[in-house]
Write a structure and sequence with these properties.
By secondary structure, the chain is mainly alpha-helical. It has a single domain, classed as ABC transporter involved in vitamin B12 uptake, BtuC. It is 71% helix and 2% strand. Strands 1-2 form a two-stranded antiparallel sheet. Helix 4 crosses helix 13 and helix 9 crosses helix 10. It is globular, with a radius of gyration of 22 Å. The N terminus and C terminus are likely disordered. It is a multi-pass membrane protein.
């Protein structure tokens, strides 16, 4: 038995590495704070350098364009925190879009169409979750396969045609603004979803289980967390929210096509990782993810206004994704080395500190 362990047991003290730094450092010196600061700097720089970037209409279209990415990033955050990934979200968006078009074309009431499209997304997520949690396949392989499957179903249902006839009320609502603010009405829906996922992930027993799974599935299982059920729920939520994104995408652009939202999964994953979520699981926070999504949106919007081609924008997004993954590994290595070279502070385990 080591001297540290003996001292800890005899004095009633325990090491807590979290308290090795002052409170202000624990609050401010984080990846989430860094990405928020970078987002603010990029916004200010773009407003000064890029013509028309600071206009109200630019903000409106930026939020309209990024809305599906913003909402899909919420369940994706929880999935990646568990150490899994869902690459099928964009194809679920496309399938939901096609179902919305096909059902509308068949004369189904639009309210029922929305419900059926979301149910289809739930089923897609359940298939992913079943294959990962029950069959035991790796989520990367599963969702690469279902990405192709769901996209194939979407294209097969409509072929190369598109449905463009939707109720005017719904298409107008998807682009409606709140008074004269320029802020789209759909932002209200995003805030509701953000609050729900923030509470679920950061303030509930379920959320604590999500982080525990990411740190160690075995330890989480022995602690009473139902690892399989938790992951299945998260994949179902991902499918449902992706389907909602597909409905919005259809109404926003007034077109249901099998290739809608192709490549969106890369935007979502890049934003989540850029926002401070570890690709290895166990770490992340939604405020950093939201900042990451908006940062990618601002960069894309500013570069398009500066007449930069989409290929260059994709390259920049890819570089940001690689940088996010590499920086996560580097920071983890630095923390590990620092912890190994200093003794943890000892905190009492009396009634007030248990």
């Amino acid at each position: 038995m080591s001297a540290t362990t003996t001292s800890t047991r005899t004095t009633g003290l325990r090491p807590i590495a979290e308290y090795d730094r002052p409170l202000w450092q624990r609050l401010l010196l984080t990846r989430e704070t860094a990405i928020i600061a970078l987002f603010v700097i990029v916004v200010v720089a773009a407003a000064v350098i890029v013509p028309n970037f600071g206009s109200k209409i630019t903000m409106t279209y930026l939020l309209l364009d990024m809305f599906p990415v913003l909402i899909i990033a919420l369940p994706m955050t929880a999935i990646i925190v568990t150490g899994e990934i869902d690459l099928s979200v964009a194809s679920v968006v496309g399938l939901s879009s096609v179902l919305t078009g096909v059902l509308t074309q068949a004369g189904v009431p639009f309210g029922l169409t929305i419900v059926l499209a979301i149910i289809a997304g739930v089923l897609c997520g359940a298939v992913n979750g079943f294959l990962v949690t029950v069959v035991g396949l790796p989520s990367l392989a599963v969702t690469i396969g279902t990405l192709a499957l769901y996209r194939g179903l979407a294209v097969g249902l409509l072929g190369t045609t598109a449905v463009t006839d939707f109720p005017a009320f719904w298409t107008d609502l998807a682009k409606e603004k709140i008074g004269s603010t320029g802020i789209p009405v759909v932002v209200i829906l995003f805030i509701v979803l953000l609050a729900a996922f923030a509470i679920l992930l950061h303030f509930t027993r379920f959320g604590r289980g999500v982080f525990a799974i990411g740190l160690s599935p075995e330890a989480a299982r022995f602690s009473g967390v139902d690892v399989g059920r938790t992951k299945l729920i998260l994949f179902v939520l991902s499918g449902a929210v992706a389907a909602l994104g597909g409905i919005y995408y259809t109404l926003r652009y007034g077109s249901a096509r099998g290739d809608n939202a192709t490549g969106m999964e890369m935007q979502v994953i890049a934003a989540v990782l850029l926002g401070g979520v570890s690709i290895f699981g166990g770490r992340g926070a939604l405020h950093g993810v939201v900042a990451g999504v908006l940062l990618i949106g601002v960069l894309g919007s500013a570069l398009r206004l500066a007449n930069v081609t989409s290929d260059v924008i994709n390259i920049i997004t890819g570089v940001l994704l690689i940088a996010a993954v590499v920086s996560s590994s580097v920071l983890a290595a630095i923390r590990s080395r620092r912890k190994s070279t200093r003794k943890p502070r000892l905190v009492g385990t009396g009634p007030g500190n248990a």
